[in-house]
């Protein structure tokens, strides 16, 4: 059973039912379920399927490609290919022999086939433009973990592949709702509090959730998978970035710089902190990280586009820099002990904010503004002679001239709105009022992981969103 992915499945079926040859590109971060989606949708019924070999030479790739052609019906009298032009010519022979009404060609890990000086891209262009696209019965599906390669070599191609992709499918992380569906399908004994706790660590990456064991608590699972040196996912960080990006070092420098700044950094601040050259390459890195879902870009209401802020929103990457990178020689109780430390509580607040940023559609639905256009961003101002400065977790700047100031609080046992906290909220609101146009009015919202405990202040902020509401489909 496929959890979620209804829109993506619909697009794949539309491409299959088309009266013309179609070129589909499925992309997204590592472990997001690209291959699983394609295999399950087509029930592994492909005219030809091949998966590129990681860091293999062109000679090795061609040999494996040829072996796959033979196994899937190529005439064994056909000579092995000398280059990728020969290889795709043999693929044409195999397709011509097929009796399938719709020839589904699935090439997985396509970027890995493009070794240095391989001439793979020109050969692939020639296969599609010179042969496949002229037919009416081909459904070509490509995907790969090296998302930056697909973006730059396929989507931004200025040669023969320019504008040739007919269906782009970007797979996003699962929402809390979809993670709950997956947890239920796996019969894991986790409630919504626990699922939020897991999401703060793993985000909505299906592969990670599928590794959880039902006989362990969420804390034990996290400890054993990510934090123990022998854990299956302990080295996941380097694996993700090295498989997705050709020059992972620069991408890692950017996310490392962003990991230490809650509200994010400008492009110039990233260059300074990460010690990178100020050229067009940094813009490409940032665009790739946004496209992969690791980073988001936003502008303050009083700033111009060139002052845009880049903010790290990938839950796992934040968790890595806070805990995994420092974990050495830990024991079975490490994560449980960590839960009692100030570092953990600080991380919880930051991680839950990221969960909320990834569920802004659900927040808008909860407060009844689904149909209203809005910009979302964090906001801060330094202290000056007029005020003491302020930082606001999330702002929803609505088209109806209302600005919702969101106070985000992680409290699994319920949040108590004390007199001092209420005073801080009102103080931030009064400072924010100094910076917004007169045509707009600011209203506070309280977003909590498990509701607000009743006291004399509990209804002082009437618009409240709970963790349960973040689970809306």
Report on the structure:
The strands form three sheets. A five-stranded parallel sheet has the order 2-3-4-1-5, sandwiched between helices. A five-stranded mixed sheet has the order 9-10-11-12-13. Strands 6-8-7 form a three-stranded antiparallel sheet. It has helices at 6-17, 34-42, 58-71, 84-97, 120-130, 147-155, 176-185, 192-202, 206-209, 218-227, 236-244, 248-259, 267-274, 280-291, 315-322, 334-338, 342-357, 360-366, 419-433, and strands spanning 22-27, 48-51, 103-108, 138-143, 167-170, 265-266, 295-298, 309-312, 374-381, 390-398, 402-409, 441-448, 464-466. The chain has four domains: 6-170, Rossmann fold, CATH 3.40.50.300; 176-234, no CATH class; 238-320, Winged helix-like DNA-binding domain superfamily/Winged helix DNA-binding domain (Arc Repressor Mutant, subunit A, Orthogonal Bundle), CATH 1.10.10; 359-471, 3-Layer(aba) Sandwich (Trna Endonuclease, Chain: A, domain 1). Helix content is 41%, strand content 15%. Helix 19 (419-433) links the parallel strand 11 (402-409) and strand 12. With 473 residues, the chain is α/β, with parallel strands linked by helices.
């Amino acid at each position: 059973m496929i959890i979620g992915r209804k829109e993506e499945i619909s697009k794949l079926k539309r491409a299959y039912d088309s009266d013309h040859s179609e070129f589909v590109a499925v992309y997204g971060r590592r472990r997001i379920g690209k291959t699983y989606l394609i295999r399950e949708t087509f029930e592994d019924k492909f005219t030809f399927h091949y998966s590129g070999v990681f860091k293999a030479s062109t000679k090795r790739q061609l040999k494996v490609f040829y072996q796959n052609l033979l196994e899937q019906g190529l005439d064994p009298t056909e000579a092995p290919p000398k280059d990728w032009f020969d290889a795709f010519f043999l693929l044409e022979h195999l397709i011509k022999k097929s009796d399938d009404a719709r020839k589904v060609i699935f090439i997985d890990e396509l970027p890995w086939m493009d070794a240095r000086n391989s001439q793979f891209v020109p050969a692939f262009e020639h296969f599609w433009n010179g042969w496949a696209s002229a037919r009416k019965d081909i459904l070509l599906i490509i995907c790969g973990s090296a998302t930056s390669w697909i973006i730059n070599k396929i989507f931004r191609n200025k040669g023969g592949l320019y504008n040739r992709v007919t269906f782009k499918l970007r797979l996003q992380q699962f929402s809390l709702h979809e993670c709950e569906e997956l947890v239920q399908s796996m019969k894991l004994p986790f409630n919504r509090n626990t699922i939020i706790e897991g999401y703060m660590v793993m985000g909505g990456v299906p592969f990670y959730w599928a590794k959880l064991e039902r006989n362990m608590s969420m804390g034990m699972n996290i400890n054993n998978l990510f934090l123990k040196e022998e854990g299956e996912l302990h080295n996941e960080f380097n694996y993700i970035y090295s498989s997705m990006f050709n020059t992972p070092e620069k991408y890692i420098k950017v996310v490392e710089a962003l990991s230490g700044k809650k509200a994010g950094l400008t492009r110039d601040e990233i260059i300074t902190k990460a010690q990178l050259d100020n050229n067009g390459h940094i813009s490409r890195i940032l665009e790739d990280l946004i496209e992969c879902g690791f980073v988001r870009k936003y502008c303050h209401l009083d700033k111009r586009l060139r002052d845009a802020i880049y903010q790290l929103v990938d839950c796992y990457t934040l968790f890595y820099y806070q805990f995994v990178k420092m974990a050495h020689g830990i024991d079975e109780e490490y994560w449980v002990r960590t839960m009692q430390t100030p570092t953990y509580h600080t991380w919880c607040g930051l991680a839950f904010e990221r969960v909320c940023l990834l569920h802004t559609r659900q927040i808008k639905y909860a407060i009844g503004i689904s149909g209203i256009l809005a910009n979302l961003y964090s906001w801060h101002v330094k202290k000056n002679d007029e005020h003491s400065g302020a930082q606001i977790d999330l702002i929803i700047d609505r088209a109806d001239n209302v600005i919702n100031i969101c106070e985000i609080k992680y409290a699994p046992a319920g949040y108590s709105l004390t007199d001092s906290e209420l005073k801080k909220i009102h103080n931030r609101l009064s400072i924010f009022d100094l910076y917004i146009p007169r045509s707009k009015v600011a209203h506070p919202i309280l977003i909590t992981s498990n509701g607000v405990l009743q006291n004399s202040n509990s209804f002082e902020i009437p618009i409240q969103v709970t963790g349960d509401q973040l689970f809306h489909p």
